[in-house]
Amino acid sequence: MLAGRGIWLPLAVLALAGCAALGLSLAVGSASVSPEALWAVLRGEGDALSRTLVLELRLPRSLSAFAVGGLLAVAGALMQVLLRNPLADPYVLGLSGGASVGALAAMLAGLGGAVITGSAFAGAFLSTLLVFGLAHGTGSWTPSRLLLTGVVVAAGWGAVITLMLALSPAERLPGMLYWLMGDLSYSRTPWPPLALLLIICLLLMPLGRSLNVMARGPLQAAALGVNVRPLEWTIYLVASALTAMAVTTAGSIGFVGLVVPHMLRLLLGNDQRLILPACALAGGTLLVLADTLARTMIAPEQLPVGVITALLGVPTFLYLLYRSR
């Protein structure tokens, strides 16, 4: 059993890092806000311009970035437990592609709001059924077979997305392309993804021991009393819901669900009772910093945040692989 300090000390450090990243994102941009003015706004004071800039423009976007980063990192951690493979994440296994197809189809139909969220979840769930069904075949699936099937299904969703873009009206094409690269510009309702992230983390904490056993393999898990098949489906469905919410909020943002869990396991070990909340905090912090960089690199123009995460994620993951060879 983990000691209390062994759990809470890393989480406290990550929470402080997240608060610092949020503070930086509120202060930095095409128009900077001084620390004194930012503190005054957070206390409910300050001038009207600063309050509008911080509370109405930057704060919802920063909270959305934190929520999306946490959702993707937790989903990636769950998929890596399920497949016992550090290269697994929602994008590799086709969940993101299915969610993107569902969301784009709703956009092309002129729908919005909750319908886009529902369509994204339906696409992710359809991808789940496809991957599990095809990987199972006439026998039981193995992690390597499931991973290969996910890669093929993800490639198929990529082809469908390309076809949808090719058939889309010209006036909608730039916005759809920008959204597919990861766009937090229109994220004005951060509370649903934040609430989902908090609820999922709280619900997964009691399953920490079962997830630890599951990471050792299904045979050992079954021998130790874990009901393996329902737990596997639970992991996949939860990862689908997390990915659908993240894709609906910010589009396709890669490498967060791949790099963050892998990095934390190297630093903190492999106890899921610590790794899952740590992924929520570290993933959120990473995406907040990446979005701040995307807003400020060529200000007043903005870059897609997915470009920044890819530029940061590729060399980081290669370095981690080199360190852990």
UniProtKB/TrEMBL annotation:
Lineage top rank: taxon: Bacteria
Family from the record: Belongs to the binding-protein-dependent transport system permease family. FecCD subfamily.
Protein name (database record): ABC transporter permease
Pfam family, one: FecCD
Transmembrane intervals: 63-83, 90-109, 115-134, 146-170, 190-212, 233-260, 272-290, 302-322
GO biological process: siderophore-iron import into cell
The keyword Cell membrane appears for this protein: yes
Keywords: Cell membrane, Membrane, Transmembrane, Transmembrane helix, Transport
Main location: membrane
Keyword Transferase listed: no
GO cellular component terms, semicolon-separated: plasma membrane
Species this protein is from: Halomonas salipaludis
Localisation: Cell membrane
Bilayer topology: Multi-pass membrane protein
Molecular function GO labels: transmembrane transporter activity
